[in-house]
Structures are given as C-alpha cells and as structure tokens.
Amino acid sequence: MIKKLMPLAIILLTLTVSAQDALTSQLYETYETFKEPTLGKRRIKHAEIQPLIDQLKNNPKFEVQKVGESIMGKDLHLISIGSGDTNIFLWSQMHGDEPTATQAVFDILNFLDAPDFKEEKEEILSNLKLHFLPMLNPDGAEVFTRRNALGIDINRDALRLQSPEGQTLKRLRDSLDAAFGFNLHDQSKYYNAELTEKPATISYLATAFNYEKDINEIRANAMKVIVYMNKIIQNYAPGQVGRYSDDFEPRAFGDNIAKWGTSLILIESGGYRNDPEKQEIRKLNYVSILSALYTIAKETYKSIPTEDYEKIPHNDRKLFDLKIVGVTYELLGKDYILDLGIFRNEVDLNGHNDFYYRGSVADQGDLSTFYGFETFNAEGYKIVPPKMAEVETIEDPMVLLRDGVAYIKTPFGEDAIFSKTPLHLVNPDFELKEFGLRPGVNPTFFLGKDGTLTHAVINGSLIDLSKPLENQEIGNGLIFR
C-alpha cells in the first residue's frame, strides 16, 4: 500500500499553528503576571491611566506622544513600540462607557515591557510597530457615557470630523497608514450568539467599505485574522462568539478606515456570566489580541480561508438577566401561564465610579425564542404578590423574605439611594400599590409551590429561600420615598 506524503507546506503550517496554540495557552495561564493591578473596575477615568502613561514616558522601550486633546482639554496619547515596517494601530474607548479593552491595552503594554516570552515578543516587535491610543473619549469616560462632551457619537463623525477626538483619530490613521486597525468596543451584555443561549462574550466584525459589502484583499485580511481570533476564544468561551452586522455605515470610522486602506478588526466585549466588571472578558481581549499580533507578525493568517469568517454565528439580542419559564400568574381570578424576561439595569452612582441595579420586566408572554443568563423553570409555581412590614432594624433579611415581605418601613438616611439588602426600604407613609405584572415594572414578587413560598424575586434577583443569602448571588433592594 502506497502512503501519500503530506506536502511540506501543510506540515510547516500545521507546526506553526500548533506553536501558536501553545503561545495562546501560555498567555492565558500567565495572565495574572501582566494584569495591570490599578485598573480593576470598568468605570476608569482619564486621571487613573495618566500615571501609567507617565511611567511609559520614562521607559526607553516606548515612544509616547501627545497627539491631541478632548473637548474638555484632556490629553490624548499615542503609545508606540516596535521596530518593524508594518504599522498596527489599536484604539479603545471611542465610547466613554466601553472601557473593557482599555484595561486590556495596559495589560498588553505590561506584557511587552516584561522580560518573559522573549522569542515571541521579538517576532512581534521586529516585524511590527504597534501604536496604542488607550482612551479616545476621556470626557465620556469621566461620566461613563457613550458620547463625548459635544454630545455626539465619535464613531459617527468620520465624515464631518467635528470632534477633536475624531480629528485626532483620522490624522493618526492617515499618518500611520496602518496595515491593521483594531477598533475596540463594548457591546450590550444582552447579545447572544444567534440561535443559542450563550452570550456573545466577544463579537467581531471585518467592516464593509461599501454598501455592496465587497471583499477586497484589505477586508479579506481582517476576516482571516478574525477567524484566527475566534478559534482562540473558542478554547475559553466555547460558542460565545458572535459576528456583528456588516451593514455599511458611511459615517462610521470603522467602515471608512477600511475604505481608506486599513484592514479593520472591530472587537466588541459583551457579556459573561457572573462577570459584571468584565474582568474575564478583559483577559480574553488580552489573549486574543496578542495572539492576533503574533499571527500578523508571522503572516500565518494569510493561509486561513475567508469562507470560515461566514461560519461565525451572527449576533442576536435575545438575552435577559433572568428568564422565568411557565409561571402561573393570577389576574382577576383566572390563572395564566407566562414567561418573564427580566433586566437588571445598571444605574450610575454620583461620581460615576460605581453603580446599583434597578430591575425591570423587559417582556412577558411566550418567550420561548429568548434566553437568560439565569433561567428558572417555574412550571407548577405561582406568583405571589409581596407584602410590606414595619421594623426598627433589619437583623436577618431572610426571616422577612420567608414570610413574603419585600417592602420594609424602617429608618434610612436622607442620602440613601438604594438598599444594600435584598429588601425595598420605604417611608412610613408609603402605600403598596395593587400588584400587577407588565413590561417596565420593577420585578418584585414571590414564587410559591403547593402553598409554600420557595423563591423571592427582589428587584430582578432570584433568591432561593431554602439557602443562606451569603451563598447566593444577589443584587440590591431599592428605596421608595
């Protein structure tokens, strides 16, 4: 029997891919070594990254330039490293409330500065020159909002260039003439990978450069790198990658940067269960971006078929924080079977450094085509309206919850905004309205089965009444005056 020999090119490609997979695994396993410890929460401000940038100014490995200012006068910096002929441009936080990749950028800069991974870094930095603009919209970041101080979306300012931030981005794109651009964003955690219950933890897009969505070499190169990055993410968040819509938006920077000649890779950081500060997603950004830079430096991405890009599932938006399935709801003496979809919306606190949750019923009825980060099968359970009680102090919230009490008349401070316990605090003259479920109302009620209360839903958080509170992921209550 004559054995067919595998062509040498395929053997070499297989060995190269295997080596890159090993690098990815090592990056993931050693991440904590390089994670920037001063950036631990999403609501980071311009002032928090300045000491990190100042350190890099004094580091001979890096070139740091002030390249512009925001409307409110905050400096925009470009941080560069590498000696290669191929320019790579990465920018983050074009939207002020999308900071996950900003944190990952500083993790990557720590990696590039460290003595570890010498051979791999030599491969990257001898072939590429990397340019990072870590916070394009510092004014928006200051108040954790999408738009800049002018009230415009910088990502829709590529044509008029009214904003100084947009002008800076265009000027840098043109002066660098980068081969690849990484446009780093966050997306809603309620996106899922199409036709699955899995969140779109990371979504990618090789932006179109015209309405016809043509694929030239520039766009094809972006697609190939995205296919490689998707393969990496599948190792750590299987099935949790989506593909963003590629409808052409003529005002958007990503679409225009692709039209101007840069292979544009859009990365959107979405949701991941039990990761409200997106620290696991930050890690996935770090691993996948560094791995992408490595494949670009070695040019191994060129052999990846563009057809594999189309195999990545589309983004969909069919996730709730909590989905309750098949619960019985009594209205006017008659029982109905409902599914409930519940959001736990973040509300910024003063200073925009932290937040609390305000739940709402997002939808109800037949939600069989929707999914939840948390799903509770409530077949055989009945919704029980909440009660109100008056107490001087709350010693054990679970005692009250097990009695069906969700609203408490008790003293609280004038400045109090929310309750740290899973109970609603109310004024002495507060009157509980007649209970009813409809989209928009705060989801606070109990679930009963065979005449016994089994669960509480307080401000959209599901609480198992048979377990200690400290063993459960619970949110906050609200204050009603």
Q: What is the strand and helix layout of this fold?
A:
Elements (H helix, E strand, L loop, with lengths): L7 H22 L1 H4 L11 H12 L5 E7 L5 E7 L4 E7 L7 H14 L4 H10 E6 L4 H5 L21 H13 L3 E7 L5 E2 L8 E5 L10 H18 L6 E3 L9 H7 L3 E7 L9 H20 L16 E2 L2 E13 L2 E15 L6 E11 L5 E7 L4 E3 L2 E4 L6 H6 L2 E5 L8 E2 L4 E3 L18 E5 L2 E7 L2 E4 L12 E4 L1
Parallel strand pairs: 3-4, 3-5, 5-9, 7-8, 11-14, 16-17, 17-19, 19-23
Antiparallel strand pairs: 1-2, 2-4, 6-10, 7-9, 11-12, 12-13, 15-20, 18-23, 20-21, 21-22
Kindly summarize this structure in a few lines.
The chain is an alpha/beta fold and 481 residues long.
CATH superfamily of the largest domain: Zn peptidases
Number of helices: 11
Low confidence ranges: 1-5, 8-15
Number of strands: 23
Shape: elongated
| Tally of separate domains | 2
Describe, in plain words, how this protein is organized in 3D.
With 481 residues, the protein is an alpha/beta fold. The chain folds into two domains: 12-316, Zn peptidases (Aminopeptidase); 320-480, Urease, subunit C, domain 1. 27% of the residues lie in helices and 28% in strands. It has eleven helices and 23 strands. Strand 16 (387-390), helix 11 and strand 17 form a beta-alpha-beta unit. Helix 4 (100-113) crosses helix 10 (279-298), helix 5 (118-127) crosses helix 10 and helix 8 (217-234) crosses helix 10. The longest helix has 22 residues, at 8-29.
